[in-house]
Amino acid sequence: MYKKTIENNYIIVIGTGIVGEEITETEYNELRGIIRTAPLAPGGYTYKLRADNLEWELVELPPDPEPVEEEATSEDYEAALSELGVTV
Amino acid sequence: MAVIPTKNEFARTPGGVTIPTSGEFVKVPDGGGGGVPLYSGTLTLASRPAAPGVFATLDAPNCTHFAMYAGDTPDYTTGKAFWGFAFVEKNQATFAIASNNAGTGVSSSAAGITCSFDAQTEINDYTNSVFGEHSIELSTRNVGDTTKLPQAGLDYKWFAW
Description:
The complex is a heterodimer of chains A (88) and B (161).
Chain A: E1 2-7, E2 10-16, E3 21-23, H1 25-36, E4 45-50, E5 56-60, H2 74-83
Antiparallel strand pairs in A: 1-2, 1-3, 2-4, 4-5
Chain B: E1 2-5, E2 10-12, E3 18-20, E4 25-28, E5 39-45, E6 53-58, E7 65-70, E8 83-89, E9 97-99, E10 106-107, E11 122-123, E12 127-131, E13 136-140, E14 155-160
Parallel strand pairs in B: 10-11
Antiparallel strand pairs in B: 1-4, 2-3, 5-14, 6-13, 7-8, 7-14, 8-9, 12-13
């Protein structure tokens, strides 16, 4: 059973076994063809496929968030001490 | 019979290609059997995720494992037709993605996935999966590094069990 997932009027994903709106094999093949011939977006941008008219829309990508270091747990400290040969 | 490498069965080839080693695969019966449920399907992203968040939801209830690859026939011994492999266990939320085009070996020590990569191993902080009662949600945390995301326009095959 072919499906498509739409979010904010953009087609996000198509496939089988995914959660989404059921489509015919004909529509699936049409969408697959469109997706495979997507224009190449410049750096920092992506093209998104509009669900209403099946046209590509250039969308700017947000910057990646700065990585957040996870807080060390007591197990981490114990492991580090253990590696150093320190017993607590 | 779907043949899927297990989490510890990746290896880096001399050429910088990251592929699973041969002969050490999980064999999952098609359609389930032996108490092993199997769900499978295809997944094609229309475009690169433009924002962090869920980009696909798989209809795979009560599963604990998930794998995904692109290409018509995954050739685990050469890496041919093998782009983007993910293997995830429940409660080990981060994908392990290997690609054969950029020689990028990706695993997640933080999530407890211990792939047999060498010192060049990178930490994939980009993609998550959440196993639920009814489905598996695939999401991305970041959108900047395209080599660490499922690629748009590629037909991925996925398995869950």
